[in-house]
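Subject: Sanity check before I submit

Could someone independently write out the structure tokens for this chain? I want to compare against mine line by line before I put it in a report. The sequence has 235 residues.
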Amino acid sequence: MTIQTLNYQDGDTTLEALIAFPETSEPAPLVLIAPAWAGRDQFACQKAEAIAKLGYIGFALDMYGNAKVGKSNAENSELMSPFMHDRKLLRQRITAALNTAKNLQQADTKKIAAMGFCFGGLCALDLARSGADILGVVSFHGLLSAPQNLPNEKIRAKILALHGFDDPMGPPQQVLAFANEMTNSKVDWQIHAYGNTQHAFTNPQAHDEKLGLIYDKLADSRSWQAMKNFFVEIF
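---
Independent answer below. Compare away.
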């Protein structure tokens, strides 16, 4: 595969994506990867490479600018907070990534999806909520709450949420509210709930029992397989 970085803009903010291209001369489906609250870290970049191995373009986007990565949970929370309080800003930032990725010569722009982890799951879901013309969104242990005070655009994407049933950041009542939101929006949606599984189940480095961040090898494997099946369906 070929790996490169690409600078792009959201207003005055310079962002840096990492892009992994598969070994093909044909236009390939494009998958945006929204990182967790730490920013565009090694985990997100590894996922871009894993996506390229599946034959798709993996576009690990940057939410914070200059590929900034938090060094502690407190710093991660500080970086994420402005976007959680201003979902319009969040939508604008991830849309900038989509618009940039659409201009990649190697991309099949009729076959675009987005995926994200934790905070990145919320980012990917909010891209779908913006009415973006993409085929699908996958949220891995994502934050599921709908934005307030934003217009309800028609969701065009199919939705797959991969969720730990014991996730303290997304308890069952939030999952039910999300399911009702998707149903009321007449979306083609799925939720896969993994029993005895908490938050951040795909990331071995995110371990923090007090916050409910616990890696689960089986849920990690099951969710990745579900994602692969989903991409085969939509692409």
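---
OP: Matches mine. For the report I'm noting this point. The chain has a mean pLDDT of 96.
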